[in-house]
């Protein structure tokens, strides 16, 4: 199962983007999208950005995912990784 997490583009170089989700950065190919800019949000699958999202939709989705993670941690506190 895959989970589509909106990722913000922070840098673009040679059809590769540096994307960021809550401070975690990864690389993603932009070969499947046109006219993508730094500051925009994308959905990434298998290392490829496959869809652009507007900022409002990205923020709403990220908030829902954070709420779901918090609810899971409350219900299953023993599964939380130690820091």
How would you describe what is shown here?
The model has no long low-confidence stretch (mean pLDDT 91). This protein has a single domain (7-77), classed as SH3 type barrels (Roll). The chain is elongated. Strands 3-2-1-4-5 form a five-stranded antiparallel β-sheet. Strand 2 and strand 3 (24-29) form a beta hairpin. The relative contact order is 0.19. It contains one helix and five strands; from the N terminus they run E-E-E-E-E-H. With 83 residues, the protein is α+β, with helices and mostly antiparallel strands.
Question: What's a quick, concise take on this entry?
Answer:
With 83 residues, this protein is an alpha+beta fold. It has one domain (7-77): SH3 type barrels, CATH 2.30.30.140. It contains 1 helix and 5 strands; from the N terminus they run βββββα.
Task: Note the overall shape.
Answer: elongated
Total E-strand runs: 5
Strand content: 35-45%
Measured as a percent range, the helix fraction is: 25-40%
Structural class: alpha+beta
Rounded Rg: 14 Å
């Amino acid at each position: 199962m895959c989970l589509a997490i909106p990722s913000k583009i922070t840098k673009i170089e040679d059809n590769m983007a540096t994307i960021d989700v809550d401070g975690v950065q990864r690389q993603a190919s932009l070969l499947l999208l046109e006219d993508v800019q730094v500051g925009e949000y994308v959905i990434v699958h298998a290392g490829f950005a496959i869809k652009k999202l507007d900022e409002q939709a990205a923020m709403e989705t990220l908030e829902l995912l954070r709420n779901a993670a918090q609810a899971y941690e409350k219900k299953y506190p023993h599964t939380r990784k130690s820091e």
